[in-house]
Design goal:
Elements lengths: L1 E2 L14 E2 H11 L1 H15 L3 H7 L1 H9 L12 H27 L2 H20 L4 H29 L5 H26 L7 H7 L2 H11 L6 H6 L4 H12 L5 H15 L4 H4 L6 H16 L2 H14 L4 H29 L1 H26 L8 H19 L2 H12 L2 H33 L2 H20 L12 H5 L5 H4 L2 H9 L1
Antiparallel strand pairs: 1-2
Family: Belongs to the major facilitator superfamily. Sugar transporter (TC 2.A.1.1) family.
Protein name: Major facilitator superfamily (MFS) profile domain-containing protein
Membrane topology: Multi-pass membrane protein
């Protein structure tokens, strides 16, 4: 069954329809985003629950409830507490490099399967934890799962999607991340009310539900045509799969490009060494810069510690968790909007709109906190509400720009011969800075106080300028023909060469 009109081959486009197989496969694969988003949301809520703190982090519990001299900004400052959150991302960092080999040698599907299985085990251990060591070991298993899923799922989505729908389908991953965050916040809000103080166990154990969906679903996923060609000499099998996912028998043009790209990739024995070559310089810069910039927007520390942040401005435990639910709803809705418009407006326009929106809202949040929240005492309900509103504005700006696009753009710019290595670098850089952010945010909040929002706002200004000057538009460009956008860009063509020069060299 196919939906929509076939896309003709003119101007470099392939024949392709949006088929039911692609929709269903991408929906299953994109649930890998739920496990990532669920963890982002669940950890911050759990670490604000007093029974959880009392059992595993009694020093933080005592400081929060009994120390009247400590600053509002420093009540949750504990390296052991941040280790609970950040340990996952060190594990994810290491796992992403193993995932690169699995994804390249065995295919995208096995890597997704490993990710779901590891996350399933980690969620079970977290829910049953009796001491802090079990909690952190469970987080490590979750990190392995996230590392494999984040490495393989965006590649899977980009390779399965028709070029004209690639943006929308790939953003499905970030949409599921947002839904995962929202579900986690809703569950935290409900479990906090359970009498007996064991609601946090449900919060941690419920991560098994999306992990089980991903694991079982991965068993039935078709492998991508790109991967079939890369790992098999039987091109007929890849052609049949390509015909199924494109909804047409006329796939020879795309198949020829895939075979050509695969032949080139097999001459590359060490993709991590080759990605540093001059001709791949733009892709390498983006693989490092985009995930770095995504983290210094400050979004994940707000996602991790939203309830903690809301408690800092004087809200109670339940009100803080409810406010986190509100930001989760805003994030999911704004990502949905991005999915609808990304292939029409383009990547650059959304980056610019979201960047300006995030910058302005962070400056206002920082200003309000600087003016109204001191080291002691609370903040009026009106100002607290204003801060929550501007945090929602900030989250919505991220939701239709740096949230989905930081996954989409890297997944679509790498040629096949370095694609797995490039995605691993993207994921690894992201994990490094997620870890640093998670590990240092509470200390930064303690020392920077309201200035932390000016810190992140400054980075948003830098990254918006970076996109404006250095990122070419990639919408509607077939993934195997992406190299031309760099050869035509005002800056990158000086490094990778003019289009005409490349043509002359190939002819020679």
């Amino acid at each position: 069954m196919a939906v929509g009109l076939a896309k003709t081959s003119e101007e470099g486009q392939y024949n392709a329809k949006m088929t039911l197989l692609v929709v269903l496969s991408c929906m299953v694969a994109a649930t890998g985003g739920i496990i990532f988003g669920y963890d982002l949301g669940i950890s911050g809520g759990v670490t604000s629950m007093e029974p959880f703190l009392k059992k595993f982090f009694p020093e933080v519990y005592t400081k929060m409830n009994e120390d009247t001299k400590i600053s509002n900004y420093c009540k949750f400052d504990s390296q052991l507490l941040t280790s609970f959150t950040s340990s996952l991302y060190i594990a994810g960092l290491v796992a992403s490099f193993f995932a690169s080999t699995v994804t390249r040698v065995f295919g995208r599907k096995p890597s997704i399967l490993i990710g779901g299985t590891a996350f399933l085990a980690g969620s079970a251990l977290g829910g049953a934890a009796l001491n802090v060591y079990m909690i952190i070991f469970g987080r490590i298993l979750l990190g392995i799962g996230v590392g494999f899923a984040n490495q393989s799922v965006p590649l899977y989505l980009s390779e399965m999607a028709p070029p004209n729908y690639r943006g929308a389908i790939n953003i499905g991953f970030e949409l599921w991340v947002g839904i995962g965050v929202l579900l986690a916040n809703l569950i935290n809000f409900g479990t906090e009310k359970i009498k007996g103080g064991w609601g946090w166990r449900i919060s941690l154990a419920m991560a098994a539900v999306p992990a089980l969906i991903l694991t079982l679903g991965a068993l039935f996923l078709p492998e991508t045509p790109n991967s079939l060609i890369q790992n098999s000499k039987d091109h007929e099998k890849a052609k049949l799969m390509l015909q199924r996912v494109r909804g047409t028998n006329d796939v020879q043009a795309e198949l020829d490009d895939l075979v050509k790209a695969s032949s080139l990739s097999k001459t590359i024995k060490h993709p991590f060494k080759n990605i540093i070559h001059r001709k791949y310089r733009p892709q390498l810069v983006m693989a490092i810069a985009i995930p770095f910039f995504q983290q210094v927007t400050g979004i994940n520390v707000i996602t991790f510690y939203a309830p903690v942040l809301f408690r800092t401005i004087g809200l109670g435990e339940s009100a803080s968790l409810f406010s986190a639910v509100m930001t989760g709803v805003v994030g999911a809705v704004s990502t949905s909007i991005s999915m609808l418009i990304v292939d029409k407006l383009g990547r650059r326009a959304l980056f610019m709109i979201g960047g300006i929106q995030m910058f302005l809202s962070q400056i206002i949040i920082g200003g309000l906190m600087a003016a109204q929240l001191g080291d002691h005492g609370g903040i009026s309900k009106g100002y607290a509400t204003s801060i929550i509103i501007f945090i929602c504005i900030y989250v919505s700006g991220f939701g239709w720009s740096w949230g989905p696009l930081a996954w989409l753009v890297p997944s679509e710019i790498f040629p096949l011969e370095i694609r797995s290595a490039g995605q691993s670098i993207t994921v690894a850089v992201g994990f490094i800075f997620i870890f640093l952010g998670a590990q240092t945010f509470l200390a930064m909040l303690c020392h920077f106080k309201s200035g932390i929002f000016f810190f992140f706002g400054g980075w948003v200004a830098v990254m918006t300028a970076f996109v404006y000057f250095l990122l070419p538009e990639t919408k509607n460009v077939p993934i195997e023909q992406m190299s031309k956008v760099w050869r035509e860009h005002w800056f990158w063509k000086r490094i990778v060469g003019e289009v005409n020069e490349d043509i002359k060299m190939e002819a020679a």
